[in-house]
Write a structure and sequence with these properties.
Sugar transferase, two-stranded antiparallel ribbon, 3 domains, Rossmann fold
Length: 466
């Protein structure tokens, strides 16, 4: 029995993805049949090779676009109208992406307005399926009944890291078993039990599916024999650190042991792997330049228009990169010319130093576009921990455990922390972001990078993360 998941992929959104694929297949198939019946257009029929090619070029862009706008995030806090708007944006993106593929491939598109009609029916089908999903609380599919062994400081991590109701949609915390050695200073809210029978009997009686070990002092206090019996009977036994990591996509940095860092380091990348990684990042940078050059020109025009023709459009700032080596990062200037007359300062959410043009440059991440040069030069990747300024990095390395571990990978334009944690500044926010950075460093892979790149579209399109 296993409740592991691939990052944010779980039974609830896997069910939603499968339902969407079924809806898209049905709309495409019956849509072509209907259009063929009421028109004189020559359309591919089910069973033809061209039918399946067009089906893939219709379904795949739509799935990517739905992921990009956040519609596979069951923790999305959005009204039904908001979901409809996101769906319209997804359909528009998918239509543009599919049109680009048809343009590149030597393959004729569907004739007439058949594609446009199918996309119209797609909106009706997907908005209906989303309404049904929300009405039936789809996010609770596969919810697991969890018992926590321990009711002290380590157990309270669940409350600290999973505060919102949406953070617990996959688990039902049945309660906490109090044991010797638990801290009295930090105790979680919820049902607390003192065992009056063997643990495995309690687990069977209350139909517990997973046990989380969160004892503050394990030695001599855990019911090892009963835990072994529970495991034999198919109950999943999970450490609190692994539980938090699985459910929230972060590492509880203040509670991990030094051995975690030692055992979770990946092998150094080979020369070929580094070359392929640079080639991938540079190729993505070229694609972004091809699509975003109008925004670059507009940014230059409006910066000059607001601050004068002689005002600088770029600024460079020293940041800490791979292995702690400093490098210069480049951005479009979004703050006033005297922004740091009093020395290095944290950028805050409503920073008065930000110009009117800079507000929009920062909101939609346009100010980050000059960092494509850093990607070409090899200072940065697209995905990785955001690079910090040397002044702040030195402070954090002294006061935050394992902070320098984030320097084991190249910094990035976007990252797991930017997806999972809202904009913030200061030491407390640095600690929270480090939890997600450590998760990324542990699990980094080409597939995870692609997932983060696609989901970053939501931040850009809807002005989040600033």
């Amino acid at each position: 029995m296993s409740h592991s998941r691939f990052h944010d992929l779980n039974l609830s959104n896997a069910t939603l993805i499968f339902a969407d694929i079924l809806v898209l297949f049905s709309i495409f198939t019956f849509g072509l049949v209907g259009i063929d019946y009421f028109s004189t257009l020559s359309l591919p029929h089910y069973g033809d090779a061209s039918f399946f090619i067009h089906l893939v070029l219709y379904t795949l862009p739509l799935q990517i676009a739905l992921l990009a706008v956040g519609l596979y995030n069951e923790k999305l806090r959005e009204s039904f109208n908001g979901i409809a708007i996101r769906l319209i944006v997804a359909l528009f993106l998918a239509y543009i992406l599919a049109s680009g593929i048809y343009f590149i491939l030597p393959l004729p598109s569907l004739p007439g307005f058949s594609r446009e009609l199918i996309f119209f029916f797609t909106f009706i089908g997907l908005i209906t399926s989303r309404f049904v999903a929300i009405s039936t609380n789809y996010e609770k599919i596969g919810q697991v009944k969890v018992l926590v062994i321990g009711a002290g400081e380590r157990a309270s991590l669940i409350e600290k890291c999973m505060r919102r109701k949406s953070d617990r949609v996959h688990v039902d915390i049945y309660g906490y078993i109090q044991i010797d050695g638990d801290s009295d200073l930090h105790t979680p809210k919820g049902n607390k039990f003192e065992l009056d029978c063997p643990l495995n009997e309690f687990v069977n009686k209350h139909k517990i599916e997973e046990i989380v070990i969160a004892a503050d002092e394990r030695r001599g206090n855990l019911p090892v024999d009963s835990l072994f019996n529970c495991k034999i009977e198919g109950v999943l036994i999970t450490d609190i650190i692994d539980f938090i990591e699985r459910e929230t996509g972060q590492i509880a940095v203040t509670h991990i042991y030094p051995s975690w860092v030692i055992y979770n380091d990946k092998k150094p990348a080979t020369f070929i792997a580094k070359a392929l990684n640079w080639l991938f990042n540079s190729s993505v940078a070229v694609l972004i330049l091809l699509f975003c050059w109008p925004f670059i020109l507009l940014a230059i025009f409006f910066i000059k228009f607001e601050d004068g023709i002689s005002s600088p459009i770029l600024y460079s700032q020293q940041r800490i990169g791979l292995k702690g080596k400093p490098f210069n990062i480049y951005k479009f200037r979004s703050m006033s010319l005297d922004a740091e007359k009093n020395g290095a300062q944290w950028a805050t959410k409503s920073d008065p130093r930000v110009t009117k043009v800079g507000y929009y440059l920062r909101k939609y991440r346009i100010d980050e576009l000059p960092q494509l040069f850093n990607v070409f030069r090899g200072d940065m990747c697209f995905v990785g921990p955001r690079p910090e300024r040397p002044q702040f990095s030195e402070q954090f390395e002294e006061s935050i455990p394992y902070y320098n571990h984030r320097h084991n990978v190249k910094p990035g334009l976007t990252g797991w922390a930017q997806l999972k944690y809202p904009y913030g500044s200061g030491k407390e926010d640095a600690i929270e972001k480090l939890k997600f950075d450590l998760y990324y460093i542990k699990h980094r892979s080409f597939v995870l990078d692609l997932l983060i790149l696609v989901r970053t579209s939501e931040i850009v399109l809807f002005g989040k993360g600033r």
